Amino acid sequence: MTERNLNVRRTTARQLVASGLKAHRARTGMTIRALAKELNFSHGYIARVETGSQMPSTSLAGALDEYLQTNGHFTGLLVLAGNEGTPDYFRSALEKERTAVSIQVLTSNLLPGLLQTPEYARALFASAAPKAPRETLNDPVAIRCERASAVLERENPALYRTIIDESALARPVGGNEVMRNALRHMREMSTRQNIVVQLLPFRSGAYPMLGGSFSAYTGRDGTTTAYVESFGGGEVVEDPARVAELLHQLAHSTSRALPEPESLEVVRQYEERYGNG
User: Of 101, 103, 38, nearest to 68 (Cα)?
Assistant: First the structure.
């Protein structure tokens, strides 16, 4: 393999965004400051994207595509960045998540990904790679936040229901302040019409999906795909018989959860405890 081919293989979505923005901006003859003013984003933000030190948000990528008439170039690269280094099974699950009209989630030890704050997500990523430079965590945190925005805050957001094991509330990921803010954020998100949060209290004992996480994505055609994850990997399940069996287990687990008002009261109590140290 030639050195040229090796260099192409090393090119990341972040580098393509940076070089693409520089080339398209140069084509217009605009300065970074002028482009920033046209798009109503800060000069520093545009500069960081063009130098490759930061990825654009979904809104900035869309604005760049529209203003520079790049036919979805930057938005596509943002999706590619989210897939880089992602196992095939999880990439498939993310594709289902992006287009789902209904999402059901059960988590047994962590707050659900789409309801996490950036600080909570950063603490999780840092615990998985404790010796990694802090700046390497910026992209995965940003991508997780963009996932949440794309699914829950789009024009017709997905209906999102999550069942959370109480252990996820009791585990102080990132420390007291991070947990307090994360729980407050989750309660605030639950006030939206499309989001339901329920809790599996410790007193409910064991349940069918204890020890892992489960997601069910229902598409516009009514087809449901399941994603099951445990330590070391995950699996996308599309076989109708297996999906039906997993949904039955989810229903059984859900039947042991508290009603939403009681669930949110427990969340509030944990939030208060973390606030009191």
Answer: 38
